[in-house]
Design goal:
single chain, elongated, 420 residues, mainly alpha, three-stranded antiparallel sheet
């Protein structure tokens, strides 16, 4: 009885999933120049043989030490081996967890839709894989396959096909971020042990999305051709410097007419924020309130500033159609060159960049801008400021004047370029 829990350790090379060219079925093959994993083999308190991979052991001595700890815990009645749960099975549980977070108001319903799309693509590759058997090499192969467009969603009646062919790095990185979160949730619920395999995978490098150089003239043109309700959204977003979700979740109870302030109870950084109302913002909010549907006694039917009769809670949740209509009208009223430069890459968040850059160019300091934008760090604010790039261009131009030489090798001050 004293030796019933004695086990052993053994080493195996890192493997990944690949298609067998003969059988066209998935199989495990060694990873070239991959690491060596140590495995533990022991019997639990019922006598069942358990084989599992150690996530921390790098040498045989470390594997033996971990095996000793496991067997000690078994004798104490503590089980440390992972449960055999498939990725697909836990993915269903993960989506239910996110669904409860939507009901609790922790995340938006639109965010849940993006999470579901990411999980759908992950299931194409990992649905039948055990959580504890997924390696960083498997995840890297998934990343490569997605970037090259080698994966396809299964045909489901009623579901619109998206992401045909290769996708951009940003899309794959969001899917890997969801996978990382899924493993964290699995660890919390005791169905996964060890180090999160996504933590050892490099995300695909993302090119910085440079917003179009919108100026005051372009902003006024956008206001003129926009749908009336989209115009109201744009004005409120530009004058408050708030994000789309923060604007759409604005309630009338948060508008303090007497003090001339708007209270934002929850921002992306998780902190509340106050915004002062200027005359134009106050006028637009008054216009929205006068147009909002009312009951017989004159009270507002919806507590939301941007209301919609189509949603159950009467809150406007999106305006994709209005943005598409805006771009179509901008194409009609502008030249092809101007449309390509200013409006082709236009999205709602650009207005936030534009307003912040406009304030910075007119003397507002970066610390004040950071508070208005709701950033925790001024480094994030610098991304929004187009004037920073303009300052750098002026500085390098000035440096060229100070250090530049003419075609004849003489300095601008008339002295020779040779050492005297």
């Amino acid at each position: 009885m004293a030796n019933e829990h004695l086990g052993r350790v053994y080493a195996r090379p890192e493997t990944k999933t690949a298609l067998d060219p003969k059988t066209h079925k998935k199989t495990r093959v060694p990873v070239p120049k991959g690491r060596t994993y140590w495995y533990l083999a022991y019997r639990d308190h019922t006598g069942k043989l358990i084989r599992r991979r150690s996530e921390n052991a790098r040498t045989k001595l470390e594997a033996l030490a971990e095996l000793h700890d496991v067997e000690t815990d078994i004798r104490r009645g503590v089980l440390r081996y992972p449960k055999k749960v498939k990725f697909g099975a836990f993915a269903d549980q993960y989506l239910k967890i996110k669904g409860t977070e939507v009901e609790a108001g922790k995340i938006e319903a639109s965010s849940l839709d993006r999470i579901k799309r990411s999980v759908d693509w992950l299931l194409v590759y990992f649905a039948d894989s055990m959580l504890h058997s997924i390696t960083p090499a498997d995840i890297e192969d998934y990343r490569t396959a997605r970037l090259r467009g080698k994966l396809e969603l299964p045909k489901v009646p009623g579901r619109r096909r998206t992401d045909h062919g290769a996708v951009v790095p940003r899309t794959v990185n969001r899917e890997l971020a969801q996978m990382k979160n899924l493993f964290n949730e699995a660890e919390k619920r005791g169905v996964f042990t060890g180090k999160n395999p996504v933590c050892r995978v490099d995300f695909a490098p993302e090119p910085r999305r440079v917003p179009p150089p919108i100026g005051v003239y372009q902003f006024q043109q956008i206001i003129q051709v926009a749908h009336p309700r989209l115009r109201q959204l744009i004005v409120v977003a530009a004058h408050t410097l708030k994000r789309k979700t923060e604007v759409l979740t604005l309630r009338w109870e948060n508008v303090n007419w007497e003090e001339g302030r708007i209270y934002i109870p929850k921002t992306k950084s998780g902190e509340a924020n106050w915004v002062s109302m200027n005359d134009e913002l106050r006028a637009v909010l008054s216009e929205i309130q006068s147009e909002s549907p009312k009951t017989k006694d004159g009270s507002l039917r919806s507590p939301w500033v941007f209301w919609s009769p189509l949603s159950a809670d009467r809150r406007l949740r999106g305006f994709t159609g209005w943005m598409a209509d805006l771009k179509a009208k901008l194409r009609e009223v502008s030249t092809p060159e101007d449309y390509k430069r200013y409006y082709e890459r236009l999205w709602f968040h650009n207005l936030r960049h534009f307003a912040a850059s406009l304030l910075e160019k007119n003397g507002v300091d970066i610390l004040t801008l950071s508070k208005l934008l709701g950033h925790k760090s001024t480094r994030t604010t610098e991304i929004y400021l187009h004037g920073v790039d303009e300052d750098q261009r002026r500085a390098t131009a000035r440096l060229g004047q100070l250090l530049g030489t003419g075609t004849n090798g003489a300095h601008q001050d008339g002295t020779s370029g040779a050492n005297n």
